[in-house]
Amino acid sequence: MAPRPAAHRLAALRGVAVVPAYNEEASIAGVIRELRAAELDLDVIVVDDGSTDRTADVARAHGARVLRLPFNLGIGGAVQTGFRFAFEQGYDVAVRVDGDGQHDPAQLRAVLEPVLRDEADVAIGSRFAPRQGDPDGYRSSRSRRIGIRILAAVVSRLVGQRLTDTTSGFQALNRRGIALFARDYPHDYPEVEATVMAFRSRLRLVEVPVSMRERGGGRSSITALRSIYYMVKVLLALFVGLFRRTVLPEEEPR
């Protein structure tokens, strides 16, 4: 028999979409509408990371539950808040979709498939993995492509598995993945370190080819100069992380 598609398998589980957002008033409504349109029956949780605009009000008006942080923690703190909520509320599956509109929720089914088939604990939507009809993958600025390729090469060497996009925030996780990131999650440009953390904690990780869109509003905080700073800082963090104690996923509450 052919395996059931993602929506059918997800129907037997509790699923949540974690949407970290900082000053995304212009794009958050569209993200929520597209999550609903994906018809995956996911509860939508927007983590408002101390926004100074109407991000929280707009998210509530479009039916999302909002976790509003009292001040800006940064992307890592916002993401961990969402995963902590998912863990404590007993969700079986979580997806992460950024609030700027660059991730296409219509592709969530593909990202979820390896997790729902129990082939992975964490699935990452990769912009750079070759896709049918677009063998070259995602195109960004030259400086950012170089930095991302260097980071991907370093992480691939560390974990012994070829990875192409270690900075992607488009993800799906099962209960084990949720538990790990609820307990510990890097707070400053976190995705690269979180990938290594997942492997060191013996989680299964796969990449799924996806496409990326332009931001729906606002502007990115990562300039060309900050891209260089980011790459150097993350490489140092990876080196330091080699000496950290391995973090294990949280145990279920008794």
Secondary-structure blueprint of this entry?
Blueprint: H1 6-10, E1 15-21, H2 28-37, E2 43-48, H3 55-61, E3 65-68, H4 75-88, E4 93-96, H5 108-116, E5 122-126, H6 142-159, E6 171-173, H7 175-183, H8 191-200, E7 205-209, H9 224-241
Parallel strand pairs: 1-2, 1-4, 2-3, 5-7
Antiparallel strand pairs: 4-6, 5-6
Task: Give your account of this protein's structure.
With 254 residues, this protein is of the alpha/beta class. The chain has one domain (9-241): Alpha-Beta Complex (Spore Coat Polysaccharide Biosynthesis Protein SpsA, Chain A). It is built from nine helices and seven strands, in the order αβαβαβαβαβαβααβα. It has a seven-stranded mixed beta sheet with strand order 3-2-1-4-6-5-7, with helices on both faces. Strand 1 (15-21), helix 2 (28-37) and strand 2 (43-48) form a beta-alpha-beta unit. Helix 4 (75-88) packs across helix 7 (175-183). It is globular, with a radius of gyration of 17 Å.
